[in-house]
Specification:
By secondary structure, the protein is α+β, with helices and mostly antiparallel strands. The protein has two domains: 75 residues, Arc Repressor Mutant, subunit A (Orthogonal Bundle); 130 residues, Trna Endonuclease, Chain: A, domain 1. The chain has a five-stranded mixed beta sheet with strand order 4-5-6-7-8. A three-stranded antiparallel beta sheet has the order 1-3-2. A two-stranded antiparallel ribbon has the order 9-10.
Length: 212
């Protein structure tokens, strides 16, 4: 859990209880971890539920396990709150169903590469392909998408999860064979049955997992 908070900037109470503390005493365990100096609560204007950042004890515990060099978030940036939280939701989901492994978050990539522009994540697919992951909630200029794809180095494909039918259809036609694309709404409805498109091809997420 501490590693995810560091790498993904923050975790919500709901995310922690759903993915890490699944027992009946989850809230008690989370309170104890916070009391011990590993976590601190961070306010979010748009959401009244608790959110957590990592503290010094948590960083020290991770350093003892070999996780160093990643600068922790000092607060939650409200401008990117929904985007960042959704990226974390998708990472946890993809890892749990076997679609992604060895995930490197944006913060990890920045610390390793020293670059300002990095994808929202990079992971290995079930077939061992290196995938650059992007969550796209609002549209950009067409020329910018082409620039972004050209900036990705040492990856086999880009995988875009897109919100909204209009943006989905626009990117699906624009990028053709250069990226995988699916709709966020489909994942939220039924992850394994979500159709992923590239060029004229398409497979469900379950088929992509099974195709390894």
């Amino acid at each position: 859990m501490l590693k995810y908070i560091l790498e993904q900037k923050f975790l919500s109470r709901d995310q922690i209880i759903r993915w890490f503390y699944k027992s009946k005493d989850a809230n008690k365990r989370l309170w104890e971890v916070g009391l011990a100096g590993y976590l601190k609560k961070a306010p979010v204007v748009l959401n009244s539920k608790d959110h957590f950042l990592i503290k010094s004890h948590g960083l020290r515990a991770l350093a003892e396990r070999g996780t160093n060099g990643i600068r922790p978030a000092s607060s939650i940036d409200i401008r990117f709150y929904f985007h960042d939280r959704t990226v974390t939701d998708l990472r946890l989901l993809f890892e749990s169903i076997g679609l992604a492994r060895d995930w490197k978050s944006e913060k990890v990539l920045r610390s390793e590469l020293g670059a300002l522009k990095v994808p929202d994540g990079v992971f290995l697919s079930p077939a061992g392909k290196k995938i650059a992951f992007e969550l796209e909630l609002t549209p950009k200029e067409n020329s910018r998408y082409k620039e972004i794809l050209s900036e990705y180095q040492n990856v086999d494909r880009a995988f875009y999860v897109v919100r909204g039918e209009a943006l989905f259809m626009r990117l699906k036609g624009l990028m053709r064979n250069k990226m995988l694309i699916c709709k966020l709404e489909d994942i939220e409805r039924d992850p394994l049955k979500t159709e992923v498109f590239w060029g004229n091809e398409r497979m469900t997420i379950k088929e992509l997992i099974d195709a390894k």
